[in-house]
Amino acid sequence: MDTTPPTRVVVVTGAGTGIGRATARSFAAQGATVVAVGRREEPLRETAEGHPGIRPFAADVTAEGAAEEIVRAALTDHGRLDVLVNNAGISAGGPLGTLDRSVIAPLLETNLVAPVLLAQAAVPALRESRGVVVNVTTTIGQRGWPAGSVYPATKSALETLTRCWALELAPAGVRVVAVAPGAIETPIADHMGLTPEQRKAVRDRQLAHTPLGRIGRPEEVAWAITALAAPDAAFLTGTVLPVDGGALVS
Fold first, then answer.
1. CA torsion, points 77, 78, 82, 88, in degrees to nearest 10?
2. Which residue has the higher pLDDT, 197 or 152?
3. What is the pLDDT of residue 72?
4. Closest CA to 184 of 226, 243, 110, 246
5. How large is the angle between the packed helices 114-129 and 150-169, nearest 10 degrees?
6. Cβ–Cβ < 8 Å for 61, 85
7. CB 39 within 8 A of CB 88
C-alpha cells in the first residue's frame, strides 16, 4: 500500500511580484504544485522560471466569476486544493477630504471582496483536503497610519474574517490563519503614484517604527506563510502572525 502523501496543491494570488512571487517559489521548493495567479502573464512567467512546480494562471481576482474560475482550474488540472493564499492586494489612498469612490472601490474589491469570494469558492475543496487559508494583511491595520486609512482598514477587516472563518471552518478541519507584514521591500509602492520624495518619507517613517532597523524581504514573509500552512502547524487556527521587525510592539 502506497503511504506517500499526495502532492499539495497551493493557489497563491498576486504571485507575479513581491511576497506572492516569493511565496509561490517557497511552496514549490517544498515540493508543492503552485497555481500562481496574477493579472499579467509576463511577471507570472518570471515567477515560474526555474521552478517547474509553479503553473502560471493569468486572472484578475476582482473580475466577475474569477474566484470560481481559479478554483476550478486548480481542481481540473491538479485534482485537489490544499492551501489558498489570499495575497493579492493594492495600496492607495490619502487623507480625508481627498478620497472618492474611484480610490475606495478598487481597494475594497481587491483587498476584501476578492479574498471573501475566493475563500468561499475554495471551501468545498479545502474541506476534502482538510486544508488551509492564509490571508496576507498588514501590521499597520493594527496600529493606524496617517493619510492612508482605507488600505489598512481593508486589511483589518481581513483579519476579522480570518478569526471568524477559523471558528466557522474548524469543525470541518479547515484552518484559517493570517500573516501581517510590516515594511517589506516590494513593488506595491510603485503603483501609489508617490514622488521620490514622498516614497523616501514613507520609508523613513517605516524605519523609524521598526525596532530591527531595516526593511524586510519578501522571502521572510514567505517563510511565515509556508510555516503557518505546513502540516506541522496543524493546531494553529485564527492566528495572525506579525512579520514586521518588531513594529507592532514598538
1. -40
2. 152
3. 98
4. 243
5. 20
6. no
7. no
